[in-house]
Amino acid sequence: MPQLSIVHALNQGMHRAMEADSKVLLMGEDIGKLGGVFRVTEGLQQSFGDERVIDSPLAESGIVGTAIGLALYGFRPVVEIQFDGFVFPAFDQIVVQLARMRFRSAGALSLPITIRIPYGGGIGSVEHHSESPESYFAATPGLRVVTCSDSHDAYWMIQQSIASDDPVIFLEPKRRYWQKSEVNTNAKLNEISSLHEARVLSEGTDCTIIGYGPTIATCLQAARLAAEDGVSLEVIDLRSLSPLDMPVLIKSANKTGRVVIVHEASRSGGVGAEIATRLSQECFYKLEAPVMRVTGYDVPYPPSRIEDDYLPDAERILDAVEKCMGY
Amino acid sequence: MDQLDSVVQLLDSNGSFANHSQYISTLSDSELFDFYRDMVLVRALDEQATALQRQGELGLWAPLLGQEAAQIGSARAMRKQDFAFSTYREHGVAWCRGVDPVDMLSFWRGTKHQGWDANQYRFYGYQIIIGAHALHATGYAMGAYLSRNTETGDAGKDQAVMAYFGDGAMSEGDVNEAFVFAASYQAPVVFYCQNNQWAISEPTRRQSRVPLAYRAAGFGIPGIRVDGNDVIACYEVTKQALDRARSGGGPTLIEAITYRMGAHTTSDDPTKYQVFSDVELWRDRDPIERLKVYLRAKGVLNNELESEISDEAAALTERMRKGCRELPDPNPLSMFNHVYSESDLNIDEQRREVETILSRSQNN
Ligand SMILES: Cc1ncc(C[n+]2csc(CCOP(=O)(O)OP(=O)(O)O)c2C)c(N)n1
Question: What pLDDT does residue A1 have?
């Protein structure tokens, strides 16, 4: 099985999706000749031509809005938003237009659009390049919101997203883009587990850690450190932020009785709040401690010289675990 | 190149000067010398910042290389009471507004989101979101008009507003909405589009089938094309547009035709998309070189004055190197400041969380 970076896995996943379905086309700023500022689409324009890998004008509302029109015509657009902080000019098109089309047309119109967004911080960049906007989308009915944390998922989840008949917000953990891991490229798309399945990455008995995207590496690091102290953490990669795979989370919470949710996005109104509420309803009698959150703070993303103080790290996760264990 | 037809030019790329029928330059020798000095210094500033990024002192830098005349000429046309809204590339404008170069670096080093007080310099912070500030500039101009700070005839009072953005920005909804508002209210704003031929890897023709300035007509705004590498033309065209705005004549769109001689930012690799011959062509149109030829021929510039400016540039870059490394890292707790106008229980609680973490790591 090849070892691929997340960037290469996404690239090859899109390549395969474009081969499989001639209606798949890519659109975005600088994705063609340049291959995207992160090189995720590198070489695809050479392979598929400039009518299937389209450099768009500099206008995000335009990109998503025209993707809607293309989808109405029967295409399956995959659009790139260059950075998380630049998705907001397209907010109306995504939240008000794209998300509702199936519902308002009573199922007559479907918009199989994938919106790829590199997201999250930790790359030492300037303002608006390190945002975690997922909860806006996860709070919007009609959108599927997913994120990968390793190359295998990057490769398969992008193909599943493209194949989905619903709009998918596909969040890419940019700070892990160059992290390499094994990808089973021999599998078949219809044999791969559901796009919306949460995955237990390491089993444990004392406390469940739920993370996604860029925080997974941090959660696994925390689990290794905890193991040295004899504390057994169960790490779950959420993978899908909407819909949530509650059965997997409930099962784990019932087993360990303690849950810590980790995300880079601000705490209030974040994805963690939704999970905590549902777990407290479903696992009330099995929980030994309140569900804890380790998150970015309720402030705009800070200047990069202090971003490490904002981002969840293993130490903060272990603090939360310790608190849980103290109940 | 056909692009340079019908554009206002007073100083050609060989350094010969001729007045334009609608733009008669009244710039004095000493003002021209100052423009030259400004351009040499901001180029040095820019090269120094690029070097600091290479050395790991800055996270990123967006070079202005090649756009010195477009920025210095237009910014020097502003009066003190005017206000400029800009993108991440307008270091030359920042310079003219009096912003300290070390303060410019703080944004790129990641110590601050805004390195200076916008009201003090009447210069907004660097705007990363393409086009967003075109609306802010328009609203600010509406404010000047509604406050009767235009059309008074008082040179020290009448205000106009500059909105700087690039050719790529011309595609964003915000910029086009700004044109609508500005035209509708005849706001005293000058839209100054530096067409440096690129939006990262995309050439201007991806954004527009007609010269960008032609678009203005559809909004009911005068559109003017100017040689963006001719500092005199940039000054005169901008000055006329600002004067008209101040005196109730409404907005203008200026397209300054120039070339991005460097990478989009220090993260970019232009060899992937740029054509070498284009770069060479534009190198011959260098904005600094042509003014140098002109001023030397006029006797305004000589070796002695040149070496004085070089010394000044050396002192400036030395100060930037030192100042950059000495920029204080923010206190992590500062991220909890200024989220709201008043203190907030939730934020205070989160600040205490970080205090605990920090005091523990200090004790370890
Ligand atoms: C809303 C938004 N979309 C995308 C970007 C990413 N981006 C940064 S600069 C740039 C190109 C801008 O081109 P132009 O307006 O011509 O200005 P230039 O950089 O050439 O000065 C892009 C696409 C952004 N900063 N903001």
Answer: 86
A89 Cα nearest atom in ligand 1: 1
Does A33 contact B273 at a Cβ distance shorter than 8 Å?
A: yes
Q: Is the dihedral of CA B282, B283, B285, B286 positive or negative?
A: positive
Neighbour count for residue A213 (Cβ, 10 Å)? 28
Q: Which residues in chain A (97-136) have CB-CB distances under 8 A to chain B?
A: 124-129
Residue from B130, B171, B175 whose mutation best tests the ligand 1 pocket (most atoms within 8 A of CB)? B130
A170, A27: one domain? yes
| Same domain as A171, residue A47 | yes
A298 lies within 8 A of chain B by CB: yes
Successive 10-residue mean pLDDT values, chain A, 327 residues: 96 98 98 98 98 98 98 98 98 98 98 98 97 98 98 98 98 98 95 96 98 98 98 98 98 98 98 98 98 98 98 98 97
Single-letter residue type at B84: A
What is the CATH classification number for the domain harbouring A302? 3.40.50.920
Which residues of B are less than 8 Å from A118 in CB distance? none
pLDDT confidence of residue B364: 74
What Å distances lie between residue B250 and A277, B158, B220, B238, CA to CA? 55, 13, 10, 13
SS3 B204: helix
- Quote the minimal CA–CA distance from A297 to chain B in Å: 7
| Mean of pLDDT over chain B | 96
- ipTM entry: 0.96
Is A97 found in the same domain as A150? Answer: yes
Kindly list the domain boundaries of chain B, sorted by start residue.
2-325, 334-363
Residues of chain B with C-beta less than 8 angstroms from the C-beta of A304: 59, 110
Is A129 one of the catalytic residues?
yes
Give the C-alpha distances (Å, rounded to integers) separating B128 from A263, A306, B113, B165, B166: 25, 19, 11, 10, 12
The total number of structural domains in chain A stands at 2
Mutate to test the interface with B, among A41, A129, A305 (most CBs of B within 10 A): A305
pLDDT tens digit sequence for A135-175: 999 999 999 999 999 999 999 999 999 999 999 999 999 99
Report the topology of domain B2-325: Rossmann fold (3.40.50)
β-partners of residue A295 are A263
A316 touches chain B (CB under 8 A): yes
Please give the residue of chain A at the shortest CA–CA distance from B61: A126
- Number of A/B CB contacts below 8 angstroms equals 117
pLDDT in tens, A43-62: 999 999 999 999 999 999 99
- In order of A223, A299, A300, A320, the CA distances from A314 in angstroms are 8, 21, 22, 10
Instruction: Over range B76-105, report the average pLDDT.
Output: 98
> At residue B202, what are phi and psi to the nearest 5 degrees?
-100, 130
pTM strictly above 0.95: yes
Spot the catalytic one: B89, B225, B246, B264: B264
- Give me ligand 1 centre to Cα A129, in Å: 12
Residue-range definition of the domain harbouring residue A292: 199-325
Task: Find the residue in B nearest to A43 (Cα).
Answer: B272
Give the tokens for residue A291.
């569900």
